[in-house]
Amino acid sequence: MNSAAPRAVIFDLDGTLAESRLDFDAIRTEIGLAPGLPILEQLADAGPAERARAEVIMRRHERKAIADATLTDGCADLLGHLAARKIPIGILTRNIREVVETFARTFAFRFAAIYTREDGPHKPAPDGVLALCAQLSARPQETLTVGDYKFDVEAGRRAGCRTVLLRAEPLTAAEHAEWGSPDLVVSSLRELLPLFR
Ligand SMILES: [Mg+2]
Questions:
Q1: Whole-prediction pTM value?
Q2: I need a labelling partner for 95 at 20 to 30 A (CA). Which of 21, 22, 61, 86 fits?
């Protein structure tokens, strides 16, 4: 990985900064979607009424999950470290703005820019990464994206950023491409501290 310190960082929310128990299986069941497949993709062709009904269900689960959320290991240390170094942070999530704002308020974090599914094409599309880079005044190649799912890696990679996958188990060689070929895999956000010395 390029050894220059990133000038901006774009984080996913759920599973990356927030230890939130979003039960996607329960959401799928309640909406009436097929098991195992991503929710927003399944709703892509839904009509306005079906989409509105699904949004009500998703938002109820999302609000509940963030109300009960804690911080992932190393989150407070890393975000404090970035704030001290004046490295701006963006949030890119398939969740909603209200939930990001609740999280920021609860844990007294300050995010310079936020992009949610309400703002345009969602991950794995690169649109949100590019929009956030512009708002953070950093070029994609100077920006690090951090997330816990393959869509996070794919979005960052397609935008031209360096990508970090947060995951408890290391990727096997067979999984590496499937998970978007991240530049770095870490099991705790704490492992990113040395990048910003
Ligand atoms: Mg996530």
A1: 0.96
A2: 86
